[in-house]
Each structure stands twice: as structure tokens, then as C-alpha cells.
């Protein structure tokens, strides 16, 4: 009785898949094109020492108070070194880690870990002695009850 227009599910599914495929191709090409241009602009904005070989001109040194407040390179570690990029021949500053500071931090960490190991070893020994006393008392009570 319903002689209305009936649409088969198969052609609709094919149409949806085709439209999805075409939109992926169009938007995918646009995204790839946008990524290529953004990669080029990011590479230009990066410091030269991140994208090419460099030579250290001045070793890692502590930043002054003024440098720490004004130079973005000094803020992460408080130390900076001067580098020369070999390809572009640019002199730039690069944040670095001081060997002396890293060594102090390492030995402080080692000392804290040794102190914690001794503390927990003492806790284990005292707990074991307390448990041994409880077990021996329990055994003594069992023997007395016989």
C-alpha cells in the first residue's frame, strides 16, 4: 500500500563512503600542506643550535642576576654557554647544566638514599624483633597450657 519512494540502503551507504573518502582526501591534503608550511616556520623560529652543528665558544657559566631576569636562556637552569653555529655562523646563547651543581645534586641524592636505606633497615630489624617476641610468647603460652 505504501507506493511511496523507497531508497535502497546499499546506494546510500556507497554514497556516504564515497563522500567520506573524498572529504578525507581534500582535508588531508589541506592538513599536509598546512603542516609543511608550519614546519618550515617552526624551523626558522628555532635557535640555530637546535637544527645544526655548533661549537661551544664559552663554557657553561653562572648567569648574573640581571641575565637571569632578562635572558630567556638563563631561566631554566641559571647557567648559560655561548655557542657558534657552524653552518650559519651565528653566535647564540644556550642554557646548560653546571657539572659542579650536577655533582652536588648527585651526592646529595646518594646521601639521602643511604640515610633512607639505613632508616628502613633499622625499622625492619626492630619490627622483626617485635614479631619474634610475639611468636616466642605465644609458643611459651602454648607450652604452659599443656
TrEMBL record:
Keywords: Cell cycle, Cell division, Cytoplasm, Cytoskeleton, Membrane, Mitochondrion, Mitosis, Signal, Transmembrane, Transmembrane helix. It holds the Pfam family JTB. One of its GO terms (biological process) is mitotic cytokinesis. The chain crosses the membrane at residues 12-32, 105-125. It is found in: Cytoplasm, Cytoskeleton, Microtubule organizing center, Centrosome; Cytoplasm, Cytoskeleton, Spindle; Membrane; Mitochondrion. It comes from the Eukaryota. The keyword Cell division applies. GO terms for cellular component: centrosome; membrane; midbody; mitochondrion; spindle. Gene3D superfamilies: 3.30.720.220. It is a single-pass type I membrane protein. InterPro entries: JTB. Its main location: cytoplasm. Belongs to the JTB family. Required for normal cytokinesis during mitosis. Plays a role in the regulation of cell proliferation. May be a component of the chromosomal passenger complex (CPC), a complex that acts as a key regulator of mitosis. The CPC complex has essential functions at the centromere in ensuring correct chromosome alignment and segregation and is required for chromatin-induced microtubule stabilization and spindle assembly. Increases AURKB activity. Inhibits apoptosis induced by TGFB1. Overexpression induces swelling of mitochondria and reduces mitochondrial membrane potential. Interacts with AURKA, AURKB, BIRC5 and INCENP. May be a component of the CPC at least composed of BIRC5/survivin, CDCA8/borealin, INCENP and AURKB/Aurora-B. This is Protein JTB. It comes from Conger conger.
